[in-house]
Amino acid sequence: MNTPPPEVPKKVELSKVVIYSLVGLLIAGLIFLLAKSLLDQKRDTEQQAKAFKEQMKELKSELKAMQQNYRSMTNKRDSLQGWVDYYTPMRAVIFNAKLRDRVLEITEFKPGDVAKFKVDSTSAVIVEVKVGGNDLSYYVNYLVKNRKGQLIEVSPYELYR
Question: What pTM was computed for the model?
Answer without folding.
Answer: 0.46
